[in-house]
Design a protein that fits this description.
It comes from Phreatobacter oligotrophus. With 163 residues, the protein is an alpha/beta fold. The chain has six helices and five strands, in the order αβαβαααβββα. Strands 2-1-3-4-5 form a five-stranded mixed sheet, sandwiched between helices. α1 packs parallel to α6. The longest helix is centred in the last third of the chain and has 20 residues.
Length: 163
């Protein structure tokens, strides 16, 4: 997926757009993927790893009432809140956020292993959020699929052919 990441970075550069990340379950893997791509310093402005619910509220501005919902931090609303929060915090054009359960067991709110929400928020754009249920597999596989899905979502937003 490094080739796709390079194409995404080049596309963002050509538009004069910037990107930020807010990550929970992926713990910086999406950020690292962009940081590894040539030219990323011109478009990737930074990110936040917010594992705990209170940090999602404190740092990213996710409303606490969303975090107290039955599904907890693994929800569409929280993913969108994380993306919008980091976009405002970092002053970026676009932001990608991840929240989910990589295992080895369901989270305290009953979300199953392999459930992940990815959101992309952008200046002047309606936020896009998708739920993925990768199923019970090891954490590394879930996280790798999550990063790939984030890249493909961004490619779709930019109108890029990922194939």
């Amino acid at each position: 997926m490094l080739d796709l990441t390079i194409l995404l970075v080049e596309d963002l550069q050509s538009r004069g757009w910037t990107l930020a990340t807010a990550e929970s379950c992926t713990a910086g893997r999406i950020a690292q993927t962009f940081a590894d791509a040539k030219g990323s310093g011109e478009v990737y402005v930074g990110g936040v790893i917010a594992y705990r619910k209170d940090r999602k509220a404190m740092v990213l501005g996710v409303p606490e009432d969303l975090l107290r919902q039955p599904e907890g931090a693994v929800s569409e609303a929280v993913a969108v809140g994380m993306a919008e929060g980091v976009r405002h915090l970092m002053g970026s054009t676009l932001a990608i956020a991840s929240t989910g359960v990589a295992g080895p067991s369901p989270d305290e709110d009953g979300n199953p292993v392999g459930r992940v929400y990815l959101a992309i928020a952008g200046h002047g754009l309606e936020a896009d959020c998708r739920r993925f249920d990768f199923g019970e597999m090891d954490a590394d596989a879930i996280l790798a699929r999550t990063v790939d899905a984030a890249l493909l979502m961004l490619a779709g937003l930019l109108g890029r052919d990922a194939g």
